[in-house]
Structures are given as structure tokens and as C-alpha cells.
What does this fold into?
Amino acid sequence: MALILEFRYSKNEILEAYLNEIYLGQNGASAVHGFGLASEFYFGNSLKDLPLEQVASLIALVRGPSDYDPRRYPERAKQRRDLVLDEMVKEGYLDAKVAEEAKAKSLNVIPRSRQIGNRYPGFLELVKRRLKEEYREDDLTSDGLKIFTTLDTQLQETLEKTVAKKLAQLEKLPKANHLQTAVVVTRRDSGEIVALASGRENSASGFNRALDAVRPIGSLMKPVVYLTALENPDKYTITTPINDTAVTIRAQNGSEWTPKNYDHKEHGRVPLHTALAKSYNLATVKIGMDVGIVKTAKTLKNMGVNKEVDMYPSLLLGATALTPMDVAQIYQTLAADGFTTPIKAIQAVVAANGEHLQSYPINVKQAVDPAATYIVNTILQEVMHEGTGKAAYDVFPKDYGLVGKTGTTNDAKDSWFAGFTGDYLAVVWVGRDDNKPIGLTGAAGALPVWVSLMQQISNQPVILSPPDNIISVSVDRYSGLLANKNCTSAKTYPYIQGSEPHSYSNCGNEPKPAQEEEEKSWIEEFFPD
It folds into this structure.
């Protein structure tokens, strides 16, 4: 092997490869390989900017990174560094006076709290996984690749502070202890991940909940069910009446499933938009069973979830288990008006010589009907104004157009919220690693974290743009029919063209009291008896 290396590479090339790969220390669970990373790890600076004495300190580590660790054994490390400087004088690389000046300098190693090599371990884990899908491990450790990521460090630090503060507040509530969280934040327009929290603590080791915590998503699944239904406008519109009444589904093996609403009540005949805005389980199951579980699962896949899901009726209420990253992909499709934009963490990869190896452009393709998506997003705005997300408007201006959905699983073990503003989308999960109840609904647990974060980072309200085949119609909220201009219960709703109601409600046709008196006096004048 040595002969082959000597034949194929110059001495400088062999030395460069060695310097880029040699082990020079340990940063928690991660090894520090190469002089470039070691420079950041020990001195918080790039290798090209290090003064002579710090370069000598790195060379001193080669003999034994553990024995000459400048943090643990500063005196031993300094002696070894000074020996390196003396040897450089002996070999003619340094003037003796310059060496003495360097030896008079302290080590100036940065404390561990200031290390920047792994300040964002959750996000960097995602980057590493993406890179390993396309590059060999040897390429990643020895080729000196430059990776340009989508991380916004200011947003990341805001997220970390928000998580720490809000979880501490939540733990003052009964049952809400030992809480953990995962948060994924993307740019609404591009799907670029700008911040990611893999847990409560910003730890370089441990479980990455944003990528690997597979948890039931609860009511976050409901928009997928309603989207599937609204893609069939001949049968379902935003005001189609749905029976939110008891339902029992019998499986082939004879077992029965009888879902319940969260409040254990039945709400009778309600418009479709109310069923979603109020998160009624019974109405959702009836819609989902009608449109079909397989078709709903297909919609889920079209929205970017490639995992296999169990084809049980409970899928309709979010019994399927997904990661926060999976959920972010679903809601990114809603935020992109029905077009899939694969969420990403890397923008480009550049070789050490500056060669552009790979770009990660924004790939957009239509996944679901944009018109149906527009109607679902309109209903999710109703969720925020009148439904389970209305607490957000205690903070945001009433016209901010927030789009979102809460999610709560059985026994309040998982608290979810997914939603977007005009500029950012965020998915928040709050729960416990041991899967014990936390006593928090999506509105009580995940939503406050989301609101606090978005309040700090968002500058753009949501302005939904209707597709060309969407028309807005004034409708009587109670009858679902067209409203006359005098109808006090009228409200404007969007419909896919051709699916809007065509007959008028009686609302607004009732004679006014003054009109009744006028008619009565006219009749009495001509017919006094």
C-alpha cells in the first residue's frame, strides 16, 4: 500500500490527506478528525488564521491527543508545544527569536462552552444523514468538502431559548413533568429548514426526536382526510352538512371500533368546515370512511410521506405514527398550496478546490388539487380564529391569517401543533420519552411553544391566493344556501367552480316590522272590515 501511495501521490498530497484525517481529540460523542476541525475545536478559529504558537499546539497533539489535551493537561501540552517550536528552529524553519516569542505565549484554548464545532447537533445530524445518502464516508472525512446548509443561526438560537423557557412554564401545570420536545422550522416558500430542536437540551449526543421520534399524530391527520374529500367537489364542499353522530365500525375479525369526540358529545348535523375547525372525530370518521381509507392514505403519500401506514379506520384520527419531520413535510405541502416542496437542510456541496459538486435546487411538483388545498387552508384559518388554535390571536393581530391545526393523542400523551405564517412553517411536538400522559392537549402544550416562537421570528401575515377555479359565494351559515343581501347570517365561503349552491335561502326574505305595518295599513284602508 505504501508503494502504491508513493507511486500515485506526491509527498505533499499524502501529508495533506493525513492532516485532514488524523484523530486530534474528542468532542463528547464525536471524534475530532483533521487539523481544520481541531483548530475550531480548541481555538474557535479557522486554521489559516491561527498564530504560530497555536499551530504548534495542534502539532503537539499528534503524538497523543489524550495525553496532551490542552484543557486537561495544560502544563504538559505547553511543554510539548515548546518542544515542537524548538525542533522547528533546529530544522531551520524558524528563527530562534520568533520561537522564543511564541513560547512566551499562553495556550489560549477556548473553554468548552464556547466550542462552535457542534453547537447545533440536532440540525447537523440531519445534514450528515442527507450527505451519507450521496457520498461515501471516506469522502466526507478526507476530501475537505464545504457544505452550505439552510440553517439560520439566529433563528436556531431563538428556538432553543423559546423551548427552554416555555417547557419550564408548562411543567408548572399538573402532570406536565419531564417534558421533551421536537421542533422543525422551515421557510414557507422554499421548504428550507432554518431551525431544528431535537430535544429539550442542545446535546451533542442522545436521541434526535425531530428525526426519529415516531409518535401518533392525532388530529394533525384530519386536514388530509378533508383534503381527500374536497378533491371530489361533486360530493363535498366547504358547507356540505355532515352528521357528527355516533358511529361503530366492525372489522372483519368481528371486533368493533367506536370512536368518541374529545368532549364525549355528539354535535348533530354540522357544516364540513365546522367539523374540521372544531376537530370533531365522529364527523371526520364518517367522511373518511366514505372517501375511503386507501384514498386517504394515497393523499398522505402524495403530500410527501413515504412510510407505510396501517390501513385501519383509526388512521383517519391520526393513530398512525410519524416523526416531526414527516409532519413538517405534510404541512409544507399545504403551505405550498398543494405543491410538494421536499424540505431540505443542504443548499450546495463544494469540493476543497472550489469545484461545485452538487446543488440542491427547489424542486416543486403538484401533489394535490390546489383548489381543494386552498379550501382546507381557509378552514385551518377558521381553526385559528374560532377553533382549538384561537389562543394564538391573544398575541397576533386579528388579520394575520394564521393557518394551523392542533393534535392530541389518547390520554394526552402527545401534544402537537403544526401551522404557518406568511414566512415560516413550524411543527411542534411536546411529550415524554416514556410515553406517559402529560395532561396537555395540543392547544395547551405545543401551541404556546409555536406562538411564542412565531411571535419572535415572523414578519409576514398569511395571504392565501385562490386558484382560478375558486369562486367566493355569500351563503347562509345555517342553511348552506345562497344568501340574500339582507341576510344577517350570511358569510362568504370559497367553492370549486360549479360546486357552489344554486338556490337561495329564505334568510333575508322575511318582511321587516315596518314593512308589515305599512302593508297592514294599506289593507285596512281598502278593506276596513
Q: What stands out?
A: Confidence is low (pLDDT under 50) at residues 525-529. The longest strand covers residues 180-187. The first helix runs from residue 2 to 8. The two ends are 123 Å apart (CA to CA).
